[in-house]
Amino acid sequence: MAHAERVQGGGRRNARLLRAADSVGRFLVVILLTYLGLLAVTFFIGRVIPIDPVLAVVGDRAPEHVIARVREEMGLNKPLWEQFFIYVQKVLQGDFGRSVLTSNPVLQDIRRAFPATIELATLGIILGAGIGVPLGVWAAVRRGGLADQLVRVMGLIGYSAPIFWLGLMGLLVFYARLGWVSGPGRIDVAYEYTLTPVTGFMLVDTAMAGEWEAFGNAFSHLILPASLLGYFSLAYISRMTRSFMLNELNQEYVTAARAKGLSEARVIWRHALRNAMVPLVTVIALSYAGLLEGSVLTETVFAWPGLGLYITNSLQNADMNAVLGGTIVVGSIFIGLNLLSDLLYRVLDPRTRATR
Questions:
Q1: One domain, residues 200 and 71
Q2: 77 plus 25 within the same structural domain
Q3: What pTM was computed for the model?
Q4: Does residue 336 share a domain with residue 196?
Q5: Residues 211, 295: one domain?
Q6: Is 54 left (phi over 0), alpha (psi -120 to 50) or beta?
Q7: Co-location of 49 and 168 in the same domain
Q8: Burial label, 95 (beta-carbon count in 10 A; 0-12, 13-18, 19+)
Q9: Which residues lie across from 105 on neighbouring strands?
């Protein structure tokens, strides 16, 4: 009898291990196929856009024999399938080519520019989620009331108003007229050349160096564009929070909790919001990814030296290596955050694990 129980227990453990291995295998296949699709899209975009990368390097007045030689050196005379194979090999090795605009390896330029974008988007999502979630809860609890209407109007404005127009108005009011914040750029020139970059994150570097005056100046430059991105994400997060909370507040467990005499605050914040946070994690993660990839206009308006401005300047100068390299990096981060949110969803919601 004991032997049979041990055999049965071993069989269950083996079954669990097989299910776990199958889940991990499926997850890795999804990552591989998604990333391969991203590489394929960026490769063919680079071939479809009517910009000759050879002319971007040698100029449109170069002799024909020079153009032919450079085209051969760049491998553009080979069949399309072979070009794609070489392209995938180089990307997997971290080789995105050399930027025509800066003459640096594209990956080196991205490493320099991307921390500025991460810093901007991170503060933006902190503001967006930190304010948007409570507003969404408030609107759901006060459904149909004045608070609900105000939150919905605020979200509608955030959806409707062009972010570049909001940026220009913000600079006009808070910088030019009131002088509450600093203007375009990441830090004043007086501090820029006295600070040695370590991490690439201006707030972190100034704090590590103990340069608190420079820290305040960097924060003054950061707060306005980050607030605009935060407002942009707040509009979506508050709307989704309201929707999730309305669904949870109509569930039977909420009625039962109220019948037990639990306080309304505990029912809302400890029970309803806790369950609403399961899908809301995905919303916040994707909003953060959207800020990382969609802050091009904000960075352009505020002359913020991040990846968005780098890609924009590269596109204007027909620097396709830089454009495609930046696109791959942003797309990879979007894929990573999407997969991370899916994993968190499975961890936070036991029902998704029970069905596997």
A1: no
A2: yes
A3: 0.79
A4: yes
A5: yes
A6: alpha
A7: no
A8: middle
A9: 98
Number of domains making up the chain: 2
Question: Last residue of some domain: 57, 92, 127?
Answer: 92
Residue 98, helix vs strand vs coil = strand
Domain span including residue 349: 106-354
Task: Please check whether residue 326 lies inside any domain of the structure.
Answer: yes
Dihedral class, residue 34 (left if φ above 0, else alpha if ψ from -120 to 50, else beta): alpha
- List per-residue pLDDT tens for the chain, 356 residues long: 455 555 555 556 666 667 667 666 776 777 778 778 777 877 777 666 666 666 666 666 777 777 777 777 666 677 777 778 877 888 888 788 788 778 788 888 888 888 888 899 999 999 999 999 999 888 888 888 888 888 888 888 887 888 888 888 888 888 888 888 888 888 888 787 777 778 888 888 888 888 888 888 889 999 999 999 898 888 889 888 988 888 888 888 877 878 887 778 888 888 788 888 878 888 888 888 888 766 777 888 888 888 888 888 887 777 777 888 888 888 788 777 877 777 777 766 655 554 44
Residue in the structure block whose two tokens are 């036991």: 350
Q: How far is CA 215 from CA 54, 82, 170, 177, 178, in A?
A: 43, 50, 21, 23, 21
Residue 285 one-letter amino acid: A
If asked whether residues 53 and 132 sit together in one domain, one would say: no
**Whether residue 183 sits in one domain with residue 138:** yes
